Amino acid sequence: MFAHFFSSALKHYVRAPMITAVNIFGLALGLACFLTAWGMSSYWGQSDSHFANADRTYVLTQQFQADGNTPRSNPISASPAARYLREDIPELEAVARLSGGGDSSLSWEGKSIATYGAVADPELFDIFNFEFIYGSADEALVTRENIIVTQKVAERLFGQVNPVGRSVVVNADESHIIVGVIAEIPQPSHMGDRSVSLRQFEYLRKWPDPDEGDTEWWMGVSAMTYMMLPKENIAAIKAKLDRELASFSERRIPEIQRNMLDRIWFDKISLPELQTKTLDNRIFQNQSNLFTVTGVLFGMGLIILLVSCINYANLATAQAAGYAKEVGLRKVVGAGRNSVMLQYWLEALILTIIAGFTAVIILAIMSPILQAQAGIDLMNGLRLNPLFTPVIIGLVLFVSVLASLYPVMFLSRVRPVEALRSGKIKSGNRLLTQLLVGTQFAAASTLLILVLVVGQQNKYMRDIVIRPDKDPVAVLVDGASTAIGTDQIRDALSSDPSIKSVSAINYVPWSGYVNYMELTRSREDGAKKATSTVSRFDYDFLETFQATLLAGRGFNPEIETWGEPGFDEENADLSNANVSVIIDDTYAKALGFETPEAAIGQNLYLTKQLRESFDRDPTLVIIGVIETIPLVYGIGDVRSNIYELANFSGNNPAIRIDKNNVKDGIAAIERIVKERFPDGAVVMRFTDTEFERNFKTYDGISKGFTGLSLIALAISSMGLFAMAVFTAIQRRQEIGIRKTLGASTWEVTSLLVRDFSRPVFIANIIAWPLAWYAATTYLKGFMQHITLTPIPWILGFIFTLLIAWLAVGGQAFSAARVKPAEVLKSE
Amino acid sequence: MINLKNIRKVYATREMETVALNDISLQIEKGEFVAVMGPSGCGKSTLMNILGMIDTPSEGAYNFDGVDIAKYRESQLVKMRKNNLGFIFQSFNLIDDLTVEDNVALPLRYLKIPRATRQSRVREALELVGLENRGKHKPSQLSGGQQQRVAVARAVIADPKLILADEPTGNLDSQNGEDVMELLGLLNQQGATILMVTHSDKDAAKADRTIKMLDGRILDHGTTDKVEVA
Lengths: 827, 230
Description:
The complex is a heterodimer of chains A (827) and B (230).
Chain A: H1 2-15, H2 17-45, E1 57-65, H3 81-88, E2 94-98, E3 102-108, E4 111-120, H4 124-127, E5 132-135, E6 146-150, H5 151-158, E7 167-170, E8 174-182, E9 191-192, E10 199-200, E11 203-206, E12 224-228, H6 234-252, H7 255-258, E13 263-270, H8 274-284, H9 293-332, H10 337-374, H11 378-383, H12 388-412, H13 416-422, H14 430-465, E14 473-476, H15 479-484, H16 486-493, E15 499-505, E16 516-520, E17 529-537, H17 541-544, E18 549-552, E19 578-584, H18 585-590, H19 596-599, E20 603-606, H20 608-614, E21 619-626, E22 640-645, E23 652-657, H21 662-676, E24 684-686, H22 687-694, H23 696-730, H24 732-740, H25 745-779, H26 791-816, H27 820-826
Parallel strand pairs in A: 4-11, 6-8, 9-10, 17-22, 19-21
Antiparallel strand pairs in A: 1-12, 1-13, 2-12, 3-4, 3-7, 5-8, 6-11, 7-8, 14-23, 14-24, 15-23, 16-17, 16-20, 18-21, 19-22, 20-21
Helix pairs in contact in A: 1-10, 2-9, 2-10, 2-23, 9-12, 9-13, 9-14, 9-23, 10-12, 14-23, 14-25, 14-26, 23-26, 24-27, 25-26
Chain B: E1 2-12, E2 17-28, E3 33-37, H1 44-51, E4 59-64, E5 67-68, H2 74-84, E6 85-88, H3 100-110, H4 115-128, H5 144-156, E7 162-166, H6 174-189, E8 193-197, H7 201-204, E9 209-214, E10 217-220
Parallel strand pairs in B: 3-8, 3-9, 6-7, 7-8
Antiparallel strand pairs in B: 1-2, 1-4, 4-5, 9-10
């Protein structure tokens, strides 16, 4: 019997090869999308699982609440937290910190390489069982002189030899003895030597002990603080940890620091959840707690899978109307309902199995792309999951049942007497089909609008940052360069024709750093106030960053006193200090100045809350208003910038190089650093390339949306095509009648196309507010962003409509060309 | 009004040719009520389709109201059809998704008649068939007889020169059948030209003359002397 069913199925496939291909491809796309979502979640879900203690390790989170925003769990905390956790919960088996790391140079016997270093507590090696190639965890980071390097760094610096015991120089001034070489950390992990790693490092040094009498600072968070629970009595200790964390802020943070914000509190994330929760935070930008990355991924994967099942159901039902006579005959000669159901389910199962294989081929093609774009090894994520085989078998069975449910039920209920009389039966519910197709198009249209908005915004960002008409600016980030100091570098390069100007900046542009504060126009309660980012520059920053001065002047060494060499910010009496600041035009507007000129000479003050917390009350005098220099992505609703003077060492020198002489400029910079620190490796970051490097995440989002919208559009179009096929069969009689009564082919075609356009039109109306919400959420992540116009919405509408017409036009036309005499005879 | 000359209709497949109409010549005058009878497969429906311009002859000439339409293109036939013909089918052929009013108004829509005129003419047509209170119903909510009366209203609404009725009582019980035939008689008295295909001698007797067909040929053109049935 099965052989007979199989041969019947083959005949049906051969009879309608195009519909069979559409069915297979539609199901394959749906399965591929779902498996991609599952594979990505699975990949992140396996994160750090190779560490033996992963399931009893937690990461401390420290939350700040200001201006009513509720941030999500950021897995970083202030450095004093670790010490108090050890004191408050002695049952914890280990507590360790790992810093964020930074660019630096490692040198050995005249050879120098640029690396990315970090500092950590020695307990890190109790929690994480790193694989040691040379040396062991016993001595790791026991003293400040120790250093652990990764295998790659060891090979770059020493070649294939055991370097344990050798002395290396960090940032041209600190010597360390190598006590261990660790193997590359298996991925997926939150640690690693890649820039996408949450904790990137290529070597580890011991976390420096605080100096005697240092104030504990809780407002700066850079440490990842790990807490490992003991194996025994884990539930009770976990409960105690939760209790202690609930009151940790009140007990341990000094009141004066606590009062600087609305609220500060602590929580924990389990290590296996660290990657996904951090991604939620990064991608959804603290905007909403409704979405999680895995939730959205699974949701989209599931929707696309369901849509492809609906497509199959639509097409199969449309085809089923043509099989009615065959089914009627089978029933007359003895086939029962179950036999009919089994036959048509098997037909669906065979197609789903083929679609499953096609999906795996699609995934194998997509996997390297995903690996290159997002560092996600999709195939590995799937293969390593022990549930892979049972899930894929279950999925194929589930999809075959779901997709064939309606057509199978429909065929099994065919009454032989009706089917044999006309050979046809009335099939399906048109409203339901329209609703389902509409839902598909709503998803496609939302994604399409987002593609357009994201694309527009990304192009806008590129246009304002990548300026071929301007000179490139190199920011020096290595220890040697920062140690030399901006003034010395400026003096040394002043006569070099390839160097136009030298300044400094307190962060690496586009690196994700952002510092912001709220200022007011008077000390009175209720005075106009506005929040801005704060950047600190050295003299000549207007020339170096090629900013446009709108009013006033730049910082002048003859006038300014703030931030001069030797200035002691901590101990100076700032109660009556006058501080010169430059603001951008956006901030001038936010503060209520009608023109840039109106802001010059006006004073700004700290808000009452900050005045009391800092116990300072400086007067900030606006000396200049400039056009915004795009250097940071932005945070929340902050749209404006304030620029302070900082002329002390430790800032990153920023050097404007003649765009026609970049090679000579780079050589000149390297020469003057090497002259002073022969062991130093110069690490320079060009603002435009740094932007491109960090912009990959946004490009990835753009590509992701494009891919998803194309898939959604492809499946929706297949859905509409299915509906067109379905309708052509179902409305044959009606078309015949209309044509008999005088309708032309064109009139019938346009009637059908109009009918098909209706769900697309309604889908667009549903999509518009969804897309608006998603687009504004995305744009909030940028300090400079486009103004939303109706154009993406209109284009999205036109495009989906055109796609819909393309999908159904041919079917509608051929349906409309039917000869009424033939139809009415058979009816 | 209608003049068919040497009409042939051949259905050709790869294996064989089937001659549905063989050398048919026929004249129908304005205001005539003509019945066509014959056994199944004799070509009645094919003749009806050609007269109704929803099928074209393989050979021969079809002169409708002084115009030879045998070689007309589809678009020209559409124009002729909507301006000159009304159809009544055995299986009613109403559109299930449309209301009775919308079904009846359909020919006027294709003639681009303004909405206000359409509405008043639909009302008149429904009054004519006695269904003025059923305008908002869907066809599925009506009996077979009522559905056929809707079809009659639809057939007459555009004031066609010729009404083609294909076994109009074939799916009706005798009472409803008689009602429909009375309606056709009334339309004929009002000046409509009617050609009706039927298996019923009783219905055919209501016509002015009866054409008899067999194997694609006309055996008898009938006489125009009307015979009153007692």
